[in-house]
What does this fold into?
Amino acid sequence: MFQAAISANGDIVTLTAPDGQSARFHAIWLRDNAWDDQTRAPGNGQRLIALRDIPEGTHVTKAEASDHNVTLTFAPEGRSIAYDAGWLMDHAYDRADTITPGDMPEGGEAWDARLMSAVPTGDFTAVRSNPDARRDWLAQVTRYGFAKLTGGPIRDGALFDVVDLFGHVRETNYGRHFEVRTEVNPTNLAYTGLGLQAHTDNPYRDPVPTIQVLYCLESSAAGGENMVVDGFAAARRLRAENPAWFDVLAGYSARFEYAGEAGVCLRSHRPMIELSPEGRLQAVRFNNRSAAAITDVPFEAMADYYAAYRRLGQIIDDPDMEVSFRLEPGECFLVDNTRVLHARKGYAGTGTRWFQGCYADMDGLRSTLAALQSPRLEAAE
Ligand code: FE2
It folds into this structure.
């Protein structure tokens, strides 16, 4: 049985669960988060009132708890509203734990090269036809920031079938998708064989595309493995080594620019390490090819900024941080482009390589995942 106690002036209610856990709630928060049919639309759950409809000085005059519910009476409205006590405890904000700058986002797990033995992977047919397999594959993307998908069709445009599993393509000035075709032969090997430093794509966009899909259609050249690095793990390692360097990259904006085609001049100024207001890691942007002149760092901090930028690059280049894998035709991988950096390794032989890439967004993926995890919500749509 739940128990509820009201503070002397009625502005705080303390709820205690049968297991002894308790949490304090403000009267104004409780009133704003009522689920009665005058506050929330019964069908879609949208809030029917604005804060201006709740009187200032709202307080609780009576609280009655039962096995699963707590009923609160609010003054000066004079209304009694029933709450699901379990829902309240699930949404409690009265926590002792504090967030340290650089903490992972909720549900995220930092990784390094040791993940190579367990690369998150799904099977295309299973993920497409089985909701549980789809849920598990999408959950891996939110946990690790990337995942492979194997056993897909080998045809032009197959990458759109992958995006259809969770969301929608983000079209850009590069089109709905882009081609990555390489003929690897002895005459151009020196050029095409070069690996690329791990990077996030398109940091010059704001908002940045939050998912990239790279789909393999041909891969006869030896080498050319794909490689990923957890940008959040790299940022956390930088902070462990030198908190001041972490702070300088998180505290000032970098600048990124792409003006490589007629009529396009994309610019952004955003930090290389972006934190939520609470201090959790929110995004990493790292791309030497589109880095523009940094002008938002004060003169006094610029030397430290460059030292921190150099060190972050060294951490990203450290083989201990990377997970690499080779993609065969019909296989692809997907990265959370706000977190995981990607790269291609150099080639060792001759042959052809044909990949197609496109962008999509994490909000659609998270939405699909949440609906699969809560069938009740999906049914209510
Ligand atoms: Fe890229």
In short: Residues 199, 201, 342 surround fe (ii) ion (CB under 6 Å). The chain has a mean pLDDT of 94.
